[in-house]
Model the fold of this input.
Amino acid sequence: MKHKLYMGVDGGASKTDVILAQDGKILKVVRGGPSNPQGPMGLEGAMDQLAQAISEATQGYDRHNLYPAVLGLAGADFPEDVEMISEQLNKRVPWLRYSIVNDTEIALLGGSRQGYGIVAICGTATNVLGIHPDGRRCQIGGLGYEFGDFGGGADLAREVLHVAFCSYERRGPKTSLEAGVLERMNQKDYETLKRGMYFHTIHPLAFLALVPLCFEKALEGDDVAAGLLKRMAQSLAETVIATAKQLRWEEGTFEVILAGSLWEGASPVLHDHFRHLLHQVYPLCDIHLPELSPGMGAILKAVQNDSQSVALWRQQLREQKDLA
Done:
């Protein structure tokens, strides 16, 4: 009897993780480039990265044994997105059978202890998904500032630039971010930085280096940097509270999974202020970092689609969590 291969993909704005597993054991992990079609690489560039990572992960294995993969992708927000992604992906890996879900779903399934709760993603962008034990779902955010979102690396980096320019031009409080921005952006002064940004001679993603800077300065006691992190925590807490209310989770004993790299920044301000605000409304909620990675969550989703025991696989994957 041939043993099925399961593939899970976690595709985001900064990287793509592809995991191949069989019989509860991870066989291979491949990390590729960004695969969010809404990112700077565009749809075709993102799909090139995704297809390359998938092909590399399956190299050396019999693809006929591969159960339909689960692709958890940032940017797969509407059916039209899934249709466009599928059209491009089918040209590049026509042999692949798969289903596409938003990356929030695999982050929740992998990050939770029981498979339901509320996941608050805070990475390059933010997104919140809640799944109730009775199957009801509520998703809020993920589309950007204009749609009510605030938080994540891109928003934080813009805020850092804003307060740094205000500090330099004496339009706002002085902050150590002022000098830090020039250092991280590798610019000699603010006039040079201003021209580089205005005329787009600075790489459009270079400002993301300001995200860890903000955490570092907050850790050093900079009130302006800490204030930016508190504002982001407030926005994320408000979104999680709104999700819980829409799901009518009155007892408040749900899990809140903190997925995304920013939750583990150098300063605890973001995490601590978020926890404080959320526990004011839902004191019994269980706030924790993910049990398993989103990529492993995609594996669990594929196993679930095949009517296999998710609980057993979850236990087996926990023993290998350091691999992916």
Notes: Residues 128 and 240 are 7 Å apart (CA to CA). The first strand starts at residue 6 and ends at 11. The two ends are 28 Å apart (CA to CA). The mean pLDDT is 95.
